[in-house]
Amino acid sequence: MLTLNNLLALTPVILVSAFAVLVMLGIAWRRAHSGTVLVTTLGLNLALLSLFLVGTMGRVETPLLIIDGLALLASGMILVSTLACATIAHAYLAGYRGPKEEFYLLLLIGAAGAMILVSSSHLASLFFGLELMSMPLYGMLAYSFRERRSLEAGIKYLVLSAAGTAFLLFGMALLYAQTGRLDFEGLVSALGIGAGENLVSLAGAGMMLVGLGFKLSIVPFHLWTPDVYEGGPGPATIFLASVSKLAVFVVLLRLVLLAPAFQGAWFLDTLTVLALITMLGGNLLALQQPNLKRLLGYSSIGHFGYLMATLVVSNQFAVETTGVYMVTYLVATLAAFGVVTLISSPYTGEDAAALHHYRGLFWRRPYLAAVLTVSMLSLAGIPFTAGFIGKFYIIALTVDANQWWLLGGIILGSAIGLFYYLRVMVTLYLVEPGMRRRDATPDWAAQAGGLVVILLAVLVIFLGLYPGPMVHWISILLLGY
């Protein structure tokens, strides 16, 4: 039974859901693009502020959810990412021929689902949150349905996401057949210490890993990623690359840390192999990509390969490393995709995703080129950027745990990544006679979207130069000290 304390702890999710209903009612009453954006951003900001209130309550458990430090950190990142996405979408959809307001309704519903997912303590809430987050994405990715690539992206994500969900449900069924429990705590007590060697438990855990692996683009479940990233509208791709992947990784981390079936030697060996082929495969596939959105898609595969090292180690230091790496990855990814979206604004058909659209960008839009340069340096892990701090934590974690194979994979993947990130940066400063001007509107810097990407670039540099407050805050939130 829910208590008043439980309801207060769920305030951020309730606020996001309430404003989704408000946006829906507003659409039914009178369509107003700018008004819908204002209501959406107001709801997200109120939910973000309410997180500070919830943070003072300590750990709160409901029958299906758990509100702890990890859930609060992940919810904060989800809300910030969704806020950036909504702000940038305002400029992007300005020229869209058709209803614009429904995009923000889908955005709020997806954010609510992601917040439920990261707080899950029960397989039912895990499934509910995952589907509530994924279903709006089908519509967001196919929102520009008049464009063939956008419709293709939505359909591909729908089909492969459904396949991943089937694996996930089959794995849940096997664990339930073995234990008769669906809550995480019940699974832990029912499976016991020897669950790591039980074939039914391992099969269930493996099927769930496959289902979540589709959502995370873990190799070999990554084939949908480049096409969906390329075809989806810019704001939808931002949400997919940040909120969706972050939420799925957090719930996978919870499962690995809690359930004995995810701690078996066979399972951890499988995770190690998947981490290696994901970090190397993602970077190798990005080497010759002439399309920036596809390149960033493959890059995200490599980055989540690095993050999988935390699943293999799965101790307190791994939890802290996950928090640091996700924050540093998030700010750089939002900045990079934000620039792509602004260059494609206002909506004029397919996004400006090919690298030749960015040739000489510095000489036409120096601020946008500077933001993209900073984000590429951060994703490459160059010192004095946020990405270096995240990469340093991952390397320190593997060294501390004597995971030398993973350390070698991280170093090799980073070296490969450096090449294609530098290729993008060089393109920004080249000059081509008679090059076509395709960019954001001249007054982009006065728009909220332009200010968002500039603030993200500043944050990338600030976290790289002065990471202490971020690390201290994450340590207190996740570890209690």
What's the arrangement of strands in the largest beta sheet?
1-2
Unreliable spans are 438-443
Helix content: over 70%
Rg estimate, integer Å: 21 Å
> Whole-Å distance between the termini?
32 Å
Structural class, please?
mainly alpha
Strand content: under 5%
Could you describe the largest sheet, including whether it forms a barrel? 2 strands, antiparallel
Mean pLDDT value: 84
Q: Helix segment count?
A: 20
Please provide the ordered H/E string of secondary-structure elements.
HHHEEHHHHHHHHHHHHHHHHH
The number of strands is: 2
Overall body shape? globular
Q: How many structural domains in the coordinates?
A: 1
Give structural notes.
By secondary structure, the chain is mostly helical. It has one domain (10-479). Helices cover 75% and strands 1% of the residues. It contains 20 helices and 2 strands. The protein has helices at residues 4-9, 11-29, 33-55, 69-92, 102-118, 123-141, 148-179, 184-191, 199-216, 225-231, 234-258, 265-286, 292-313, 316-343, 361-364, 366-380, 386-400, 404-428, 448-465, 468-479, and strands at 60-61, 66-67. A two-stranded antiparallel sheet has the order 1-2. The longest helix has 32 residues, at 148-179. The chain is globular and about 70 Å long.
